[in-house]
Design a protein that fits this description.
This protein is an alpha/beta fold and 313 residues long. It has helices spanning 18-29, 53-64, 79-93, 116-144, 155-158, 165-185, 202-205, 218-221, 228-237, 275-280, 282-285, 298-309, and strands at residues 9-12, 33-37, 68-72, 98-100, 147-152, 190-196, 248-252, 255-259, 263-264, 292-293. It is built from 12 helices and 10 strands. It starts with 8 loop residues before the first strand and ends with a helix.
């Protein structure tokens, strides 16, 4: 199979460097028309639209290789910015087929040192940014009966890290947005998936390893932190070739695998459980080896439990 983007238009946010740059270049190499969006601010989001050269440099690189791209400098963090980014695609190329919401900022540290402003700033970019560009593209994708949304979550949101309370909360929100939009979009040909990349970028280079917990395994993973390890995954998910929906995929150390939410078979009874009953069956409640289900959506958990308990529909 050859993955082609001929005749398609894709927006990549935060494409001025790191992961986003490789996504934009690969899609353009495959014949796609790309909107390279990058505000050019600092990794904590504190600077304004002052470094347009980030997006311009990637566009120049794409054009030099014979590809088609335009630069955009609007912020994903506002509704107006999200609309302007998608309008740039429509004005430049006449359509929008895919949105890769990659733009992100980072604030981390001990929980007592983080502020509500830190949390709100990250929510605005990660959750709000994904929401804003997706919602602006939504009516156009719905009208044409086709669209691909690729969001960016993180193990900080799905698994947790002591230094990432604000960042993890925002990335956890992206996971929830992904799973809900996947269900809302499916009847209209709009598929939504998310990636959990582990790659070197301006953002990761500025992080303090001591505050992040000095992961003893990170040294062995270092050769695999090239953004190129995640590029193929995103290029597939944003393409016509992808028919998968409602998925979250982790790329780490050269290993690509689906991440999922599962629920243990646990313990059940026909009367309310008091605290003593819960304590007595705590091992069974947490026993993944005894069996677990992976609900396709929140309604599907009802089916799983009904079947476990022998209840009729």
């Amino acid at each position: 199979m050859t993955i082609s983007y001929e005749g398609q238009v894709v927006v990549v946010t935060g494409a001025g460097g790191g992961l986003g740059r490789t996504y934009a270049i690969d899609i353009a190499r495959r014949g796609g028309m790309v909107v390279v969006n990058d505000l050019g601010g600092a990794t904590d989001g504190s600077e304004g639209n002052e470094q347009k050269s980030y997006a311009d440099a990637v566009v120049d690189e794409i054009r030099a290789a014979g590809g088609i791209a335009v630069a955009n400098y609007d912020s994903v963090a506002s509704e107006a910015g999200g609309k302007a980014i998608i309008q740039c695609a429509l004005d430049s190329f006449g359509r929008i087929d895919g949105v890769i919401a990659n733009a992100g900022t980072m604030r981390y540290g001990d929980f007592e040192d983080l502020t509500l402003n830190d949390l709100n700033a990250l929510l605005a970019v990660h959750v709000g940014g994904s929401w804003n560009v997706a919602q602006a593209a939504w009516p156009h994708m719905k009208a044409q009966g086709y669209g691909r949304l690729v969001f960016t979550t993180s193990s900080g949101g799905t698994l947790g890290n002591a230094a990432l309370a604000a960042y993890g909360a925002a990335k956890g929100g992206v996971m929830g947005l992904t799973l809900n939009l996947a269900l809302a979009g499916a009847p209209h040909g709009i598929l939504c998936n998310a990636v959990m990349p582990n790659a070197m970028s301006r953002m990761t280079m500025e992080m303090d390893a001591a505050k992040m917990g000095n992961n003893p395994w990170s040294r062995s993973m270092w050769p695999y932190f090239d953004p190129g390890y995640t590029t193929g995954l995103v290029s597939y998910l944003a393409s016509k070739a992808c028919t998968t929906n409602h998925g979250i995929y982790s790329m780490l150390g050269g290993r690509l695998g689906q991440t999922f939410v599962g629920v243990c078979d646990g313990y059940a009874q026909d009367a309310p459980m008091d605290a003593e009953t819960v304590a007595a069956h705590w091992d069974a409640i947490n026993d993944t080896a005894a069996g677990f289900g992976v609900p396709a959506n929140n309604a599907d958990e009802f089916r799983i439990v009904a079947e476990l308990r022998g209840l009729s529909a």
